[in-house]
From TrEMBL:
Beta-lactamase-related domain sequence ranges: 68-377
Phylogenetic lineage: Bacteria, Bacillati, Actinomycetota, Actinomycetes, Mycobacteriales
Protein name: Serine hydrolase domain-containing protein
Gene source species: Rhodococcus artemisiae
One Pfam family of this chain: Beta-lactamase
Enzyme class name: hydrolase
């Protein structure tokens, strides 16, 4: 469904759907008690933030990367972009291009924070897997143990939610679009987002298909809250953001907490690019985070290496299959995707696309942020840029 938001921006179902190593001590085991009971907080040792490679990449490589960036923004009409490429033993390449705010004539800078959109899902599932490592919850627990009213809740497992195979309906239906359109600035709580799926007819039987939705991850966000007795943002901050020194990353519901100057998101309209609603809360644990380039580098490395998880849990996390419906990955596993040997996540929605991927073989990491979504014909500009970088960095180049 496509509707007009006060004549200036458009919202579609696909827009809302989003298409967003250092030594790390393993979190000590917490007491395992039924959901809702008081928990013993997990204890973590000091975590060291992974350092970036020293120096700059060789000139021929930088020229090739800049050419790929210029070609991508031109091909898709992207207003602005920020890209980082880090290759151990070879160096770093950081580049920005274009404008972050067309009306304000604000150029993209390297220190800006960008919406991660669905990359947020990789953080949320990591929190779930940490709780699994501690014995607090189990991947084969059913969602009805934590959230009441989910259709097939006694059959849908946390594993199926994390792997996008639950069959649960998404929340981005006509009811949500109507509520959002009435007040595009409304700040939605996690409970409110999840309320749109409670009792909704299932799309398919649990485990039958792999269909990517935000609702799957937002239900997992509720599990995090139930299992810890804390707000999702506080758990994320304590267990991941502060632990890794991700000072430029934040879970944001109120756009007033997103420091200016920050990028504005755009999508193609009948008269050209149209600015999209500046509302982060409509995504919840499925997509409400912001971050910067270097924090993206750190997260890409940590996510792919599994350094916040037990090795067996990380290996289990990477078991997946192609999506039947969803973003471009070779396979999608538990809150992480794989493309041509690179592990990470991408995100899209309401004017932004993003991609963060790490190659375990080479140690290279790629972070791409762009402020245009819903490109027609269908494309994901940040993911396209990542793929072009991956080709440039391919062995034997």
């Amino acid at each position: 469904m496509t509707i007009d938001l006060h004549g200036t921006a458009r919202l579609s179902r696909s827009l809302i759907t989003l298409v967003s190593v250092a030594t790390v001590a393993v979190l000590a085991a917490a007491c395992s008690t039924p959901p809702g009971d008081e928990r013993v907080p997990a204890r973590s040792a000091t975590v060291t933030r992974p350092a970036a490679p020293e120096g700059t990449l060789p000139d021929p490589l930088r020229t090739a990367l800049q050419g790929a960036l210029d070609r991508t923004v031109t091909e898709y009409g992207v207003p602005g972009a920020a890209v980082g490429v880090w290759v151990p033993g070879e160096g770093t390449w950081i580049a920005t291009v274009g404008t972050a705010d067309i009306e304000g004539e604000v150029a993209v800078t390297t220190d800006m924070t960008w919406p991660l959109r669905s990359i947020t899902k990789s953080y949320t599932v990591t929190l779930i897997l940490q709780l699994v490592d501690e014995g607090t919850i189990g991947l084969d627990d059913t969602i009805d143990q934590y959230v009441d009213g989910v259709t097939d809740g006694g059959r849908i497992t946390l594993r199926e939610l994390a792997g996008m195979s639950s069959g649960n309906a998404d929340y981005t239906d006509d009811r949500f679009v109507e509520v959002f359109s009435e007040d595009p600035a409304r700040i939605f709580t996690l409970d409110e987002l999840n309320s749109f799926v409670l009792g909704a007819p299932a799309e398919f039987a649990p485990g039958e298909k792999k269909v990517y939705t935000n609702a799957n991850t937002n239900l997992l966000g509720a599990v995090v809250e139930q299992a810890t007795g804390q707000q999702f943002a506080d758990v994320l901050d304590e267990r991941i953001l502060r632990a890794l020194g991700l000072d430029g990353s934040k879970y944001v519901l109120d756009v007033a907490q997103w420091a200016d100057p920050h990028p504005r998101g755009y999508a193609a309209g009948e008269g050209g690019l149209e600015e999209q609603p500046d509302n982060l809360s409509i995504f919840g644990p499925a997509g409400s985070m912001i971050s910067n380039l270097d924090d993206g580098r750190v997260w890409g490395e940590v996510l792919a290496a599994g350094t916040l998880l037990q090795p067996d849990t990380q290996a289990e996390r990477q078991q997946g299959a192609p999506l039947d419906v969803g973003p471009p990955y070779d396979i999608y596993a538990l809150g992480i995707g794989e493309t041509a040997g690179w592990w990470g996540h991408n995100g899209e929605g309401l004017g932004f696309t993003a991609a963060i991927f790490h190659n375990p073989d080479s140690g290279a990491t790629v972070v791409v942020y762009m402020n245009e979504s819903d490109v027609a014909p269908k494309a994901h500009p940040a993911d396209q840029m990542f793929r072009r970088v991956a080709e440039i960095l391919a062995p034997g180049r």
